[in-house]
Every structure is written in structure tokens, then in C-alpha cells.
Design goal:
Blueprint: H1 3-11, H2 14-23, E1 25-28, H3 34-44, E2 51-52, E3 68-71, H4 81-101, E4 107-115, E5 121-124, E6 134-141, E7 162-165, E8 171-174, E9 181-185, E10 190-192, E11 199-207
Antiparallel strand pairs: 1-9, 2-3, 3-4, 4-11, 5-10, 6-9, 6-11, 7-8, 7-10
This protein binds 2-oxoglutaric acid and fe (ii) ion.
2-oxoglutaric acid binds next to strand 10 and strand 11.
GO biological process, one term: cellular response to hypoxia
Protein name: 2OG-Fe(II) oxygenase
Pfam family, one: 2OG-FeII_Oxy_3
């Protein structure tokens, strides 16, 4: 898969770049080829090795976030092919955004996340205070065919929106529809609202350092 060409198809269109720069975020629907998307959906449902999520200062504080996460390894000997392919896709996205916006991104990291019914992540930014190492945050939603709703739909009444305060201070509620990718500036405040169904995703970060 030529991931650079894949992302260029979006970001050649100046509206997408402008949204990311001006509003601070952009939403890409049907972001991945269906085959990789479905493979990620299945991989995300392999429940072993998810761990209680940590907050950016290192500890766990259930008043801040209550989801579980599983980091994606780029090690090819780890038998999780879809996740490794997705890391490659994020690396290519970094190159495309570096070329267009000179962001200086040098590495990527990503984890699966699972929010059980009622779990949430209170408002936060994706960098520890004083750090700007995470330049761009990404979230890919893996909520496929929940509760007999076919296609990749998510109903607003289930809750579970990503609530983002955008670059013009407007509050944006973005539903976690399957195969939707949200790309946003990591310094924007955002939160995950609780949902009445299980909510699955991959959160990924495009970083200015190479320590991961
Ligand atoms: O799942 C989402 O919509 C956002 C998750 C998030 O903010 C994070 O993991 O830092
Ligand atoms: Fe976040």
C-alpha cells in the first residue's frame, strides 16, 4: 500500500489542510481501505493485554480516565499485523503533514483503546504540561456494526462523542463512527464522553522526538 499517495489524496485538497491549520482539526471518513479497517476492528477485539490506561503524568486516576489501552508494537515478530500496517500509515501521514506544514514530526506511537459502557476521559491535552513533543493527535474509530446497526454507524443518543474545543474556541462533538479518522493539534483541549455501548478506537500521536 502506498500510504503517502493515500494521504496526499486528502491533503492535496487545501480544504483539509486549512481545516487542520485554522480550525485545528479535520475529520476524514472512510479513512482507510475497508480491508485494513476490518482487520483492525478484529485485532482491537482481541481482549488480552489491554491495561488500565495511564494519564500523561504517569499515574492512573480514575476520575480522569477509565478506559483500557494496548500499545501497538512495530516489532514485526509480534503477531499483530494490522496494527503494524497502521503504524506505517501514520508514518506516511507524518511525512505528508511535514511536507505541507513543516511540523518536524519524527516518530509515531499508537494504542488501541477500549471504553466500556460509562467509561470516559475527562478534558485534557495530549502533552504533559510544558511539553510539546506530541504535535498531532489522531483517533481512528473501530465501532463496526454495533447493536445490529449495519454500515459503520454510531447513533448520537449512545453518547461517546469526542468533544473538542477547536482553535476558534468552538466546541465540536465528533461521533466515533467506524473508519472515521480525526486528526487534530495535540494542544487542543478535548474529552471523551461516556457511552451506552462499548467504544473502540486507536489513538495515535505524531511526535517531534524519536524516543519511542
Ligand atoms: O477516543 C477519543 O476520541 C480520544 C482519546 C484521547 O483523547 C486520548 O487517548 O488521548
Ligand atoms: Fe487525548
Amino acid at each position: 500500500m502506498n500510504w503517502m499517495m493515500h494521504w496526499q489524496q486528502y491533503f492535496e485538497d487545501s480544504q483539509y489542510l486549512e481545516a487542520l491549520v485554522e480550525q485545528g482539526f479535520v475529520v476524514l471518513d472512510h479513512a482507510l481501505p475497508e480491508s485494513l479497517y476490518m482487520a483492525l476492528v478484529l485485532e482491537s477485539r482481541e481482549d488480552e493485554h489491554y491495561q488500565a490506561a495511564k494519564i500523561s503524568t504517569g499515574g492512573r486516576l480514575e476520575t480522569v480516565r477509565s478506559d483500557s489501552t494496548r500499545w501497538i508494537e512495530s516489532d514485526p515478530t509480534v503477531n499483530r499485523q494490522a496494527g503494524a500496517e497502521y503504524l506505517e500509515a501514520l508514518e506516511a501521514l507524518s511525512l505528508v503533514l511535514n511536507r505541507a506544514l513543516y511540523l518536524g514530526i519524527r516518530s509515531v506511537e499508537a494504542h488501541y483503546a477500549c471504553y466500556q459502557v460509562g467509561q470516559f476521559y475527562a478534558q485534557h491535552r495530549d502533552n504533559a504540561s510544558g511539553s510539546d513533543v506530541r504535535a498531532i493527535s489522531t483517533v481512528l474509530y473501530l465501532n463496526h456494526g454495533i447493536n445490529q446497526v449495519d454500515s459503520n454507524n454510531w447513533r448520537a443518543e449512545w453518547g461517546g462523542a469526542l468533544r473538542l474545543v477547536d482553535a476558534s474556541d468552538a466546541v465540536q462533538d465528533i461521533l466515533p463512527i467506524g473508519n472515521r479518522l480525526v486528526v487534530f493539534q495535540s494542544d487542543l483541549p478535548h474529552e471523551v464522553l461516556p457511552a451506552t455501548v462499548v467504544r473502540r478506537s486507536i489513538a495515535g500521536w505524531l511526535r517531534r522526538d524519536t524516543t519511542v
